[in-house]
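Appendix B, Record 12. Input sequence as logged:
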Amino acid sequence: MPTPIRRLDGIIPILSMPFREDDEIDLESLVAQAEWLAVTGVDGVGFGFGSEIYRLTDAERDLAIATVVRVLAGRLPIVAAASANSTRATLLRSEAARDAGASVLMITPPAFASPTPDDLVTHYAAIADRVGLPIIVQDAPSMTNVTMTDDLLVRLAQEIDLVVAVKIEALPPAPKVGAVVAKIGDAASVLGGAGGIDFAHELGRGAHGTIPGAATPELFVAVYRHARAGNLPAARALFNRYLPLLSLSARTMDTFLFTQREILRRRGILPSTHMRHPSEHLDPFFPTELEQMLCDLDLANLDRTWNPS
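Logged structural output:
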C-alpha cells in the first residue's frame, strides 16, 4: 500500500494534452510523454489548466488520468485538477479522479459565487471528508476571479488535514509565496505556478517547489536542486538564462500551450502542436519569435535528454 502523501514538494509538471487532427485525444502520445517525464527527475506529474482540462469532457479527463496511472504504475504521484463551480460538482469530479487512480487533487475555488472565506473552508473540508485524497489548493485568481488571501490559504492548510500544498498563481507569484511561507509553518508545502515564470524568486522566498509546464522539466529540476543544496546564486543564474523563453511564452494561455507543444514536438515527445478547436489564432509573428528565441538559447534542436546545468 502506498505511503500516504503528507506533503508535496519539488517539481510537478502539468502534462500537455496531445490531440490528433480530428481533435481526439492522442492517448499514445500522452503515454509517451508520461513515461519520458518519469525519467527526468520530477517529483510527480499533473493534469491542470496546462492540460486544457477546460476543453475536455469529464469522461475524457478521467480516461486520460486512468491511462497515465496505468503506465506509471505508482512511480510518481499523479495530480488531477477536479475543480467545479459548486461543491457537489467538485465532489463528483473529485471522486471520479480518485476512482481513475489520481494520487492528489488540485482544486481551485468555485467561480461566479463570490464565496466568503468561511464558504471556502466548508467547500474544501467537504472534499477532504468525502473523497479522502490529499488536496492542493490552487490560488488562480486570473482563471477564477476569486481572490484567496494569504491568511485564508494558511487557514485551509492548518484546519484541513488533507490539504498538503497550496499552489500560488496570483501575479506576480513570488510576493504571495513569501507571505504564505512566512505563516504556514509545517502545515503544507507552498508551490509556485504560472508556468514557473517566477520560480527563482519563489525559491528565494522559501517555496517548496513549482508546478510548471512539461516541455523543459530538466531546467526546473536543476534549479530546484541547486536551491535545495543551499546554492541560490547558482539556481538564479541557471533560471535567469532561460527566463526570456518563459516570458515570451506567457503572453496568453494559448501561447503558453503552443510553446509547450512545439518544444515537446522538437524533442520527439509529441507528434504535432495541434490544439483542440476553437483555440486562439496566434500572432503570426510569434512562431518566428519563438524560433529565434530557441536558437538564441541553443534549444532549437533539443532532444529527449538535456542537462541544462
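The chain has twelve helices and eight strands.
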